[in-house]
Amino acid sequence: MRKIYWLPVALLPALGTALPGRAQTTPAAAATAGPVTGVVRQASDRTPLPGVNVIVKGTSNGTATGADGRYTLANVPNGATLVFSFVGYEPMERRYEGGPLDITLAPSNRDLDEVVVLAYGIKQDRRDIVTSVQEVSSKDILDSRQPNIVNALQGKVAGVNITSSGGGAGEGASIVIRGGTSLDGDNQPLFVIDGMIMDNSSFQESTAPGGGSAFNGLLGRSVGSANRAGDLNPEDIASMTVLKGPAAAALYGLRAANGAVVITTKKGTAGRTQLNFRSQYSVDEVNRLPQMQSLYGQGSSGFFDATTRSSWGARFAPGQPVYDNLRDFFQKGNSFQNFVNMSGGSDKASFFASASNLKQNGVTPQSTYDKTTVRISGSAQISPKLSVTGSAQYLNSGAVRPLQGPGLFGSSGGFLLSLLNWPRNDNASNYLNPDGSRRRLLALGAGADVDADNPYWTVDKNPQSDRTNRFVGNVQVSFSPLKWLTLSHNIGTDVYTTRSQSVRAVGTSQVNNQFGGLAQTVDQSRLITATTLATLNHNFFGDKLRGTLTLGNTIEENKDEAVDYIGYIFQNPDFIGLNNTVNRGALQRDQTRHLIGNFARLSATVFDQLILEFQARYDQSSTLPRPDEGKIFGKGFLYGSAAAGYEFTKILGLDQNPILNYGKLRASVAEVGRDTGPYRVLAPLTTNTYIGGGFRNDFFGSNPNLRPERTRTYEAGINLQFFKNRLSLDFNYYRSRTNDQLIAPRVSQATGFILQYINGGVVTNEGQEISLSGTPVRTASGFTWDVNANFYHNTNITESLPSPLTVVYQSDTFITDVHEGGAFPGRAISGLAATDFNRVTDPTSPYNGQLIIGANGYPSANATFIYAGNRAPRFTTQLTNTFTYKGLSLTSLLDFRVGGVVVNGNDWYQTVVGTSPRTADRYTTAVFNGVVAQKDASGNTTYVPNTQAVELTQSYYSTILSRAGTAFVEDGSWARLRYVALSYALPQRWLGGTGSFLKGVELTVTGRNLVLLTKYSGADPETASSGAGVRGGGSGGIDYGNIPGTRGVDMAVRVNF
Amino acid sequence: MSAAWPALLGALAGLGNDLISVFYSMKKYILFLSLLGLSAGLSSCEKYLDVNSNPNNPVVSTPNFLLPNIIANGIQTQMFTALRTPYITQYVVSRTANSGGNDQYVFTNANSTNTFNYSYFYSGGNIPLMIQAAQAEGSPYYVGAGKIMQAVILAHLTDMLGDVPYTEAYQGGANYTPKYDSQQSLYAVINQLCDEGAAEMAKPSSAEFRPLYSLTPSESGDILYKGDVNKWIRLASSLKARQAQHLTKKATYDPKAVLALVDKGFTSSADDAQINFQVAVAPLVNTTNIFGTTRANFGTAVFSTNIVKYLNGTTFPGVTDPRLGILVPSTSQGVNPGAGTSAVSTGLNTAPGSTTYTDFYGSWYARDLGYFEAITYHELKFIEAEAAFRAGDKSRALSALQAGIRAHMTKVGQGGSNALPAVTFPTISQAQINAYLTSAALPQTAADLTTLRPIMEQKYIAMFLNPDSWSDLRRLDFDPSIYVNFVYPTGSGVNSAAATQTDPKLRFPRRLPPGATEVLYNPNAVAKLYSDAGVTVGDINTYITKPLWFDMP
């Protein structure tokens, strides 16, 4: 370890002697003139631009503009050229010939000279990037008005699939880059903030011995939980870089097998202290709701029956009140957000401080979400060679959420299912008895309680709440002893405590909790990352060969200490508290994972045309065993990447070509490994919860021979820029293969265990990404039209599974009785398994594939699960249009998704209970399209078309149709206007001119999800009712009992001082 | 807006606290770094990575904390089976007419899943670990208890399912598709395990590192017999006697050998191998009766005509069994399989005074805090009676028959009550027992004992709900001259593959189908089961009619 840790440092002196220091090229001070002053403004609205770098060309003499856009630069010789540059703007060169120099900068279009932040804060000119990287700017993040930065990425990056779990306040979203590679692992990318690893976990049922839903009843689909990246303040983010493939991410090691999202936060700039304030008010409502029939009321067999919740009763009489309980339940949500940030500093030190607060009332009654952030970052140049930067942020977020999905311990339902089977002859909002107890529809019977909690009662009495207190901070010391050498050390942490509480009030129908129950979890998570880097830059042969070598070491600790508490039977029925319960249980589940990584990256540019990049990393993980050494930890493995780019337009002399002025081809190959979770090598015992107590085997068997999962990716791409950078095209093709999958399939329990961690199975991904961006119109009067389009197509295939498995299910998505997410060989890992009708399975029959209709005239369902579609889209396209004219700006994002099935679990449930619109056809007669089996004279089965007319009875819907899962699988394609934002920056002269303390005022109105066109018959098809924490193929496209997606309007004002 | 600022200030205060806690967590790291710089060696790297042992749960335990689960879940396995077999043996039938369920001989793989999985994962899979720990520390009694429990578990499993894994079982990832061993070989294994276990139990207690049972600091070890090794030895012999008696169709069957085992078996009801249900106190769950209202598994079950007739004076005219009102509520009328009865709310065939609970919940065996018997003294007496009868010793047969009835009546005749539904059970006096034993329900002299019927029907009554009752029915081919009240289920839902068998002896369930998880995760072994039985893979309806090895000549 010590040797490894110091390796990069040890190599330095050797390299130092090998590479002679480059001679200083400071020109002899010529005729020195006085200081230059001036103002730099934006071309569009003439507002001052702070933070613009001003440098005398060919020297290190430079400065930056202040908050008012002013700069002063001393010692500028007459005739020298000043270079003005700023991220996102076309750089400008001006010759100094005395007098003030006022400049306007135009936004740069294709950002060729922009610097992109890669792994570990390594910055690289976009020109030199040879792997697939896409950056999202602060403006784009803020335009979306999404409080969750994962949602803010939606539509901005080709090759990324983002799925909101639902429309609840503060509900999470999942992000998958280039399809999932792992059958059973987490397929979401690594999140990195300011060079250190950040937690973006979502609720995941614990697999710790004795833990999970068996202990406290909570499943991923019981509550719409958050993803931790949502804690961040979007206003703090300067940019987010998405490193798509392992080639881009290889340096982050095994945690970045699915790519990485690298977040760079805003930093202070030298100059006058500036204050920026934004206030926003938003209104939300549910976008679409499940449909319900309005013809029949409570009962069964066509008669009213007060002992059932089902709506198989009599037809509503004329004049009989029919309640719209579903629509009435949802309310208008609103949120109020305030952001303030301040930055400033001198040339030696700068700071950035921010605070934000969000308060939201959700679209379901009593649901709330709030988030408060405070952040400070600063940097100091201690000496010309030594600098320190640091940041600290405190994040506090919490929510009160309704119990959704099936409820707890597989009960009869959360709020939505209860609404969906609330008979419409009854007013659900009448939920309390005069004595304050729960008004029941059905009497409490023997055994399981089938009277799902009233939705109003459940949101009132069974709140599911959580609160997270989080600190994210880092300190980075950077030392440049030589011009070509920088040493840096970055140590940071992400610690948080989440306390969640699930209340089950006295009188609830939640299984085991009729006398009250309280589950609490206190989860303390801590990530520590310490990274040491040595970066060596050198240009050889007069810039004909530029090279950068980075050597690094990183140490990570990932520690999670959680305690679950459960208490049953409230002694005082109205008091919510663990000490008020009769029976209590507790469970401790801690996890620690350590990692040591050493890496090297060599990037070289030859003749400014050919770029080569090599990366290698050696990781040792605490979770993988070394069986040959008899150790259960510390397996080391090596992987890496090689990439090349060729700027072919240089040699063709096209640099100044009016049509095609830039073109780069690139290709790469990369391999990256992935480890497993802790404690899978030696299986621990678990508590025996049956008579006698003590211990017994836990679900998972030991595997002392686990190996890392490996992904190899090939990638090729081209980047073309046309019309002097007015139009840019980026195309990528990739192919990846992941083998030695780490999965935990269920096995024969004669092994002594239920599940067994094994290596096996192969998953491949192949896809294309196209990004097109350009400025079709830019007039002299200041009108511009910018377009940004992304196209993404991915083919994910489970090439093989280890024998004897025929499918790997994602049991967290087993939501209805007839659907479950599953990876079938030859199909995508995001596949869907469902039951189907019995069909003719005789390829020689002309009726092959048709429904087999029984002698009774009805089809029948087969209990076997078959492949029923892929929940991931076939391709997605997004189009961002931005029109600006002076201070006015109109931006919109159109989002198209083609393909991808959605399980209409709500409709399935409603079909059983008789509220589905399809059951409005009850009592009509139909001839099922199918065939009837017959025996011919020789005893062979033949088929004839069915002609028998039968009635669509209650029993057909609830016991035949509802057992065929495929009948509830729909196309989830959509076209949506994800947002449209209109903003107006008040002209400076209205604010009192340039001397005013008021530097800018901007008003914005944003509409989110205003238009949604889809054939899907349920709620918003963008849904994942088991949450963002589902591993493998995820839970996207599963719609069951959760909060439907929302649409809304935001009004915001931004003021700069 | 104004509301936001106090929140921000509060947050700033929180920031300070968090900075401090981070400093402390960092301190360890900094210490680690400096250690790294000062001291030397790869060992610190090794140490840093050596965090892959679960900090909350041990990988090994002393045997006394492993044995309780092996006993409790080993016996609970039989309770799960007893959610199925009472429909076959017609103790109960479905309340729903033509239910298409077990009482009509229709089975699914899921019906066997718990029987299979609880035998391995929940109970048996823990035995090798416990025996290893016991041998390591020198506790032969734990080795003995492990072997005898393995025999109990394996005997039940093979009697229900036939061939099951044993020689390749419990190997974890080293073999996740274990092969199934033949029932014949398993019967030998069971005898061997009983012998080896009894031999360990016969060792002197001075050889023990650890007491077999302890109440301090918490109850651990032998929760079955509270450390009485002689009861374990008698259990081993009793189990061997039961298994040997299963083989009455075999030419090798030797009633004298069975009687010899009986002599070494249980000596009173105090020896019964049973689990007493208890109030669940966290973290324990489901510790109440599997047949009771809390666990709610029998809400749609109702007593069969078959059992009711034995007790209410129909089968034995003029003899009302003192157990009527205990085993079965006195208001029960009995229902035939497939016929069904009215909804509970009508009050027909319900628990006394209830329109919420079926009559089943008004019975002795449905008490939430009752017991479940795996193998009992009264069963052994009936085994003795049958073996003696077959050996020609009718007087021993008669006295054993009477002793069996007396033991069972005494056990269930102690009164008591159940809370939900509220039922109070009558006591049975010695006078009532004597009156029954001298009634027309039984032969009064050895000479009158001319058939097996009195022995087998009394055994059937006394082994209420016990899955092994089905073994008797099977090896006696559901003989209508012995089981006189038994009726063949009616209705369109009856298993047609069974009902259409021409040989009347083969119209009944003779085995349970393979467990559902085995169909999914050990498909080749399951396919072999079907092919060995001469049945198309997946044809459960036919498969379950095929007799097992013990049930064949």
Low-pLDDT residue intervals, each spanning 5 or more residues of chain A: 1-31
Percent of residues in helices of chain A: under 10%
> What Rg of chain A do the Cα atoms give?
31 Å
Largest interface: A-B, 98 and 105 residues
Distance between the termini of chain B: 89 Å
Please state the average pLDDT score of chain B: 91
Query: Please, how many helices of chain A?
Result: 11
Number of helices of chain B: 20
- Category from helices, strands and their pairing of chain A: mainly beta
Shape by Cα distribution of chain A? globular
What features would you describe in this structure?
The complex is a heterodimer of chains A (1057) and B (553). In chain A, 7% of the residues lie in helices and 46% in strands. Chain A is mainly beta. Chain A has a 22-stranded antiparallel barrel. In chain A, strands 10-15-16-13-14 form a five-stranded mixed sheet. With 553 residues, chain B is mainly α. Chain B is 44% helix and 5% strand. Chain B contains 20 helices and eight strands. Chain B has a two-stranded antiparallel sheet with strand order 1-5. In chain B, helix 8 packs antiparallel against helix 9 (229-245), helix 9 (229-245) crosses helix 12 and helix 12 (377-391) runs antiparallel to helix 15. The longest helix of chain B has 35 residues, at 4-38. In chain B, 53% of the residues are buried. Chains A and B meet through helix 1, strand 19, strand 20, strand 21 and strand 22 of A and helix 1, helix 2, helix 3, helix 5 and helix 18 of B.
